[in-house]
Design a protein that fits this description.
The complex is a heterodimer.
Chain A (H helix, E strand, L loop, with lengths): L2 H31 L6 H12 L3 H18 L1 H10 L1 H22 L12 H28 L20 H5 L2 H4 L11 H29 L2 H25 L5 H9 L2 H19 L3 H22 L6 H4 L3 H28 L4
Helix pairs in contact in A: 1-2, 1-3, 1-6, 1-9, 1-13, 1-15, 3-4, 3-15, 5-6, 6-9, 9-10, 9-13, 10-12, 11-13, 12-13
Chain B lengths: L2 H40 L2 H35 L1 H7 L4 H23 L6 H30 L4 E3 L5 E4 L3 H4 L3 H30 L6 H35 L1 H8 L5 E2 L3 E3 L3 E3 L2 H7 L5 E2 L13 H32 L7 H10 L2 H15 L4 E3 L3 E2 H4 L6 H27 L35
Antiparallel strand pairs in B: 1-2, 3-6, 4-5, 7-8
Classes of the chains: A mainly alpha, B mainly alpha.
Chain lengths: ~350, ~450
C-alpha cells in the first residue's frame, strides 16, 4: 500500500467522521425545522443541549477532509472545486449560517431572562441552513457519481498523469463553463435524490442519537417522539438509497455490484438491524447500527468511485504524501482520545 | 467587475471578516484562562466572573471564526483551483498541523464552555490551557502557509513549470515565515488586549459608578496585555519590514512609496514630510545605501503602490501611537498608581485605542496581500493564472458581502449584550470569602435551549 492509498483511507475516515458525527448535528437542525406537537419546545431544547458542546469539534472533520484532500490529492481537489462550484458554495453558505445562527440563538439571552428579539429568527435560520447544507453536499456527491453537470473531470481518465501547468486552467471543464452554468450539477434526478438521501441520513442519525439522549434524561415522551422519527427517517433513507440504484450510470452500478458489493450489503444489514433495535427500544445499540448503515453507504459510494477519477494520478508527490500521512496518523492518535473525553464528560444528562 | 476582480474582492472580504473575529478567538482564551487562574489563586470572585463573562464572548467569536475559516479553506479551491493543484501539496504540512490544532481547540473549548458547572475548578482551568495554546498554534500555522506564498522555498520544478517535488518542511524554512507569524500572533494579543480594555473604559466613562473592582480588573488585564505587546510589535514589525526588503523588493518599494532606485533614499512620512536619506539609514544603517525602487521591476509585475504605501503608513502610524500610549500609561501609573483609572483623558485614550489595532491589522494584511500582487505565489505563479474557469463570480461576491454584513451586525450586537450583563459588586474587604470556582456570576449560565439541567 502506497502513502497515497493511506491518504485516501484517511480522507474516507474523515468523511465518515463528518457524516456520522457532523451529519447528526445537521440532522438535529432538520428536526428543529420539523419540530411539532405539544413537545416541540422540549424537542428543540434537547437537540440544542446535545449539540452545544460537540458541534464545533464535529465540524472540524470537514476541515480535516478538505485539508487532507488538497494535501494528498491536489489535482483531485482542484478538479472537484472547479466542477462543484455551485453545490459547494451553497453548502458553504449553509455552514456559515448554521454555525453562526446556532450560537446567536444560544446567546439570545446571555444573562437569563427572555431572549431578545430576533432570537427566534436565528433559530429558523439555524433549522433551514441545517437542512440545506447536507442537501448541497449530497447533491454534489450525486452529481459527481452520475457525471451530471460536471462534464469530464479534468483528470487523466485513463489514469494518466495530470497535464503540466495546471490542468484545471487549461484542460477545460465543459459542463460547467458553457451551457448550464454552475447550478447544472443540481439539474438532474440523481443529484436531487442524493441530496434528499443525505438529508434523510442526517435526520435519521440525529433522531436515533436523540432518542438515546432523551432516554438518558429520563423523558419517556421525548424518547417516543424521537424513536418514531428515527424509524420514519430510516425507512425514507433506505427507500431513497434503493430508489437511486436504477438511476445510476451503468459504469457505476457495475462497480457497485462488484467492488462496492460488501459495503452495500453491510449498509443494508446495518440499516435493517438498526430498525429492529429501534423497534425493540434498544436505543443505545441502535446508534451504532445506524451509524454503520450510513457509513457503509458512504463507503459503497467511494468504492464505486467517480467516473474518470484516478487517485494515483491526482496524488501529491510521494515525499509529501509520506510526511503528511505520518503527521495525520500521529495527530489522530492525539485528537481521538480527547474527543472521546469531550463526549463522555459532556453527554446530555 | 470582471471575474478576476470579483474573486480577489471575495477573497479579501472573506479574509478580512475572518481575521477581525479570529484574532479575538486567538487572544481571548489566554486572557480568560489567566483571569480564571487569578480568581482561583486569590480566591477572588471578580476575576472568576470576568473569566466566565469572557468565555461567553469566546464561544460566539470561536463559532464565527470557525465557520468563516472554513469558508477560506474551501474558497482556496473554489476560486483558485490551479493554485491548489500546483501548491496544495507544498502547503500540506502547515495546514495539516493547523487542522489538528483546530480540532484540539474545538474539543477543549467545548469542555471549557460547558464544563463550568460540571468539572471541578482546577480541572476546568486545565481544560482552558489547550484552548489558548491551540488557538495561537493554529494562527501560527496558517500564517506560515501565507508566508510561504510570499517567499516560496522547497519547490523542485520541471522546466515546464510543473512542480514535481516539494519539500514538506519548506514552509517552515521560508525566510518570511518567522517574522510574519510572530507579527500575526502578537497582533492577535494586541487587538484582544486593547479591545477588552476599551470595553471597560467606555463602560466607566458612561457610568462613573462602574469604576468598581470588576471593571477595573477587566480594564487592567486588557490594557496590560495590549500595552506590553505594543512596543514588542513595533520591534517585530521592523524585523518583518527588513525581511520584506530582502525577499520582496517590489513590495518594499511599494510600502515605502519608492518609485525610483536611488542611493540615499529619503524617508516619507505619510506623503507630507520627506526626510533625506533616512530610509537608507534605517534599513541599511548607511545613509548612502542604494535601495531598489519600483522602476527596477517590470511594469507588469509591480504591485498597486498607492494603496500599499497608504496601508503601510496607517499601520506604522497606529503602532507608533500605541507605543506612545503605553509610555503615557506607564508614566501615569508610576505617578498615580491605581488612581490612573480616574483620569478621564486616559479612559478616552483607551476607548479610542480599542478599534485602532484592528485597523492596523487590516492595513497590515492589505500590505501583505496587495503588496504581493500580481503574484499568488511570489515570482512563481500569477493570481490570474490561478483563477477558476467558472464565470459569474460577481454573484458570489455580492452574496458573501450581504451575509457577512448581516453576521457582523448581529455578532457585534450579541457581544455588546454579553458585555452589558449584570456585574458583581465589590465586597467589603476586597477579597471575598465565597468559593471562587463557582458561585459568582450566578445569573449567567441560563441559555435558551441549553440552560437548565447541565
Amino acid at each position: 500500500m502506497s502513502a497515497a492509498d493511506g491518504l485516501a483511507l484517511v480522507v474516507l475516515a474523515g468523511l465518515t467522521g463528518y457524516a456520522v458525527l457532523g451529519g447528526a448535528d445537521f440532522g438535529a437542525g432538520v428536526w428543529d425545522l420539523l419540530a411539532a406537537g405539544p413537545r416541540r419546545h422540549a424537542q428543540r431544547e434537547l437537540l440544542a443541549r446535545a449539540m452545544g458542546p460537540v458541534w464545533e469539534a464535529n465540524h472540524v472533520w470537514l476541515i480535516f477532509v478538505v485539508i487532507t484532500l488538497f494535501s494528498g490529492f491536489p489535482a483531485a481537489f482542484a478538479a472537484l472545486s472547479t466542477v462543484l462550484l455551485g453545490p459547494l458554495s451553497l453548502a458553504l453558505l449553509g455552514i456559515v449560517l448554521r454555525g453562526a445562527a446556532f450560537v446567536f440563538r444560544q446567546y439570545g439571552a446571555p444573562h437569563g431572562g427572555p431572549p431578545v428579539r430576533g432570537t427566534v429568527a436565528w433559530g429558523r435560520v439555524f433549522a433551514a441552513s441545517s437542512t440545506i447544507t447536507p442537501f448541497a453536499f449530497g447533491a454534489a456527491a450525486g452529481a459527481l457519481s452520475a457525471g451530471t453537470g460536471t462534464g469530464a473531470l479534468p483528470m487523466g481518465a485513463a489514469g494518466g498523469a495530470v497535464p503540466a501547468g495546471g490542468s484545471v486552467a487549461e484542460g477545460g471543464v465543459p459542463g460547467a463553463v458553457d451551457g448550464g452554468g454552475v447550478w447544472e450539477p443540481f439539474l438532474a434526478p440523481s443529484p436531487l435524490i442524493a441530496g434528499g438521501l443525505a438529508v434523510a441520513c442526517c435526520a435519521y442519525l440525529a433522531a436515533v442519537y436523540l432518542a438515546r439522549d432523551a432516554e438518558r434524561v429520563g423523558d419517556a415522551a421525548l424518547v417516543a417522539d424521537f424513536r418514531r422519527r428515527a424509524i420514519a427517517a430510516g425507512v425514507v433513507a433506505g427507500a431513497l438509497a434503493l430508489g437511486a440504484l436504477p438511476l445510476l450510470p451503468p459504469q457505476l452500478s457495475d462497480r457497485l455490484s462488484t467492488v462496492g458489493a460488501p459495503a452495500v450489503a453491510l449498509s443494508l444489514a446495518a440499516g435493517v438491524t438498526a430498525l429492529v433495535l429501534l423497534w425493540r427500544r434498544r436505543h443505545s445499540t441502535a446508534r451504532l447500527a445506524a451509524a454503520g448503515a450510513v457509513a457503509s453507504l458512504l463507503w459503497g459510494w467511494a468504492a464505486a468511485g467517480v467516473p474518470g477519477m484516478s487517485l494515483q494520478s491526482a496524488a501529491a508527490p510521494p515525499a509529501i504524501a509520506g510526511a503528511v500521512l505520518g503527521v495525520l496518523l500521529a495527530g489522530l492518535a492525539i485528537v481521538l482520545p480527547c474527543y472521546l473525553l469531550l463526549v463522555r464528560t459532556l453527554r446530555v444528562r | 467587475m470582471d471575474d478576476l476582480t470579483a474573486a480577489r474582492e471575495q477573497m479579501a472580504l472573506s479574509l478580512g471578516f475572518h481575521i477581525v473575529f479570529a484574532v479575538l478567538g486567538v487572544g481571548m482564551p489566554t486572557l480568560m484562562v489567566w483571569a480564571e487562574w487569578r480568581g482561583l489563586r486569590r480566591n477572588d470572585p471578580l476575576w472568576t466572573a470576568l473569566a466566565r463573562r469572557w468565555s461567553k464572548a469566546v464561544a460566539v467569536l470561536f463559532a464565527v471564526g470557525a465557520v468563516s475559516g472554513t469558508v477560506l479553506s474551501i474558497e482556496f479551491g473554489l476560486l483558485w483551483p490551479a493554485f491548489m493543484e500546483r501548491f496544495g501539496a507544498a502547503l500540506s504540512l502547515p495546514f495539516t498541523l493547523e487542522s489538528f490544532a483546530f480540532f484540539l481547540e474545538a474539543i477543549f473549548l467545548g469542555l471549557y464552555l460547558y464544563g463550568w458547572d460540571r468539572l471541578p475548578p482546577r480541572l476546568h482551568l486545565l481544560t482552558g490551557i489547550p484552548v489558548a495554546v491551540a488557538g495561537v498554534a493554529s494562527a501560527a500555522f496558517v500564517t506560515t502557509a501565507n508566508a510561504w506564498m510570499n517567499g516560496p522555498v522547497g519547490l523542485v520544478s520541471e522546466p515546464s513549470g510543473r512542480v514535481v517535488a516539494v519539500e514538506p518542511f519548506g514552509p517552515f524554512r521560508s525566510a518570511t515565515a518567522a517574522p510574519q507569524l510572530v507579527h500575526m500572533v502578537l497582533a492577535a494579543f494586541l487587538c484582544t488586549g486593547l479591545a477588552v480594555a476599551a470595553v471597560y473604559a467606555v463602560a466607566i466613562l458612561r457610568d462613573p459608578a462602574k469604576n468598581d473592582g470588576y471593571h477595573r480588573r477587566g480594564l487592567a488585564a486588557g490594557a496590560v496585555l495590549g500595552l506590553v505587546v505594543a512596543p514588542l510589535q513595533v520591534l517585530v514589525g521592523d524585523w518583518a519590514t527588513r525581511v520584506v526588503a530582502d525577499t520582496q523588493p517590489a513590495k518594499f518599494a511599494a510600502m515605502e512609496g519608492l518609485d525610483h532606485t536611488v542611493d540615499g533614499a529619503p524617508f516619507d512620512v505619510a506623503g507630507i514630510v520627506e526626510i533625506p536619506r533616512l530610509l537608507s539609514l534605517l534599513l541599511k544603517f548607511d545613509p548612502d545605501a542604494r535601495l531598489v525602487g519600483l522602476d527596477a521591476v517590470p511594469a507588469a509585475e509591480r504591485p498597486p503602490a498607492a494603496i500599499t504605501h497608504l496601508a503601510f503608513d496607517v499601520m506604522v502610524g497606529i503602532g507608533t501611537a500605541l507605543v506612545l500610549l503605553a509610555v503615557w500609561t506607564l508614566w501615569l501609573w508610576r505617578r498615580r498608581g491605581r488612581a490612573a483609572v480616574d483620569n478621564r483623558w486616559f479612559l478616552r485614550a483607551l476607548a479610542v485605542a480599542g478599534p485602532a489595532p484592528f485597523v492596523a491589522l487590516l492595513a497590515g494584511w492589505i500590505v501583505t496581500e496587495v503588496g504581493r500582487q500580481p503574484w499568488i505565489v511570489y515570482r512563481v505563479m500569477l493570481v490570474r493564472d490561478a483563477l477558476t474557469p467558472q464565470t459569474g463570480l460577481q454573484t458570489y461576491f455580492y452574496v458573501t458581502a450581504a451575509v457577512y454584513l448581516v453576521l457582523s451586525t448581529a455578532l457585534i450586537a450579541i457581544l455588546r449584550r454579553i458585555a452589558a450583563g449584570p456585574t458583581p459588586a465589590d465586597t467589603p474587604h476586597g477579597d471575598n470569602p465565597m468559593p471562587a470556582g463557582r458561585a459568582s456570576d450566578a445569573q449567567a449560565p441560563t441559555v435558551p435551549g441549553s440552560g437548565g439541567r447541565r
